[in-house]
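REVIEWER CHECKLIST
Item 1: Sequence provided? yes
Item 2: Single chain? yes
Item 3: Sequence as submitted:
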Amino acid sequence: MTLVVSTAAAGPKATPAPTTPVVFPVLGPTTYTDDFGDPRPGGRHQGIDILAPKRALALAAEAGKVKFWTRSASAGCMLYLYGASGTTYYYIHLNNDLTKQDDNRGKCVAGTAYAKGLKNGAKVSAGQVIGYVGDSGDANGLHPHLHFEVHPGRGAAVDPYPTLQTATHLLFAVPRGTPFTLKLRGKITAVSEDAIRIKVRSVSAWPMAQKQPSISRTLLVLVPSTAIVQSVRKFGAPGASTDLMDATEGESVELWTSAAPATLKAERGDDLALSASLISVAGP
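Item 4: Structure as written out by the authors:
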């Protein structure tokens, strides 16, 4: 699906991939397989193709410095992320379309290929939006995807699959400090007097209008005394006040978080990093 764009050859002497979990480089639903090393017209595949919707958000795998690269016919719009750990990540085939169609009328610039307002050489934080998934370069006309490479120690490419398998998937992505509210839907797995554990099936984030309609995450959310807890026949309908401790495992739940400034812990959904404002329980 992707021609080789790296001249570094993978092999047994390659530096091992980073073992510390990183942020998964695309927000939202994706599909990928371990196609590292597969035959390509120009040689062995040096990365993994992560299929995602056009203009899906590409995220910084770790904190570091970015460099735009626009001079490769095969890579199209490309970005290097020089991670603080010493690992370099390649983001290839970023978007070059101005519409939902495959028009190729855009340039490799911020707002089209790279995140709006991002500057070449800028320092970025882990999970920061740095680009948009597309089909530029020799991926033109194929399913939009991010060709993602991992180069530990700035050296040869290694298989990104283990890194992707252990990476943290963000619930949402905005500049740190930006106010946000989430709507979580799923099933209750446990409750206590001041917390609820939910098997989340979907998440919507405001005001950035980000939606992930099909996920599978278990989150532990703080429930302060000010939170409203109600039982409802269906979500969106008027409810009757109830006690959190009356909720049981397996019941369906819709939870709205309190408005708060974004942090990486909140974006990751770390335990108790999110606080509930309204909890609606609709039964099993």
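Item 5: Key structural point noted by reviewer: The two ends are 44 Å apart (CA to CA).
Item 6: Recommendation: ____
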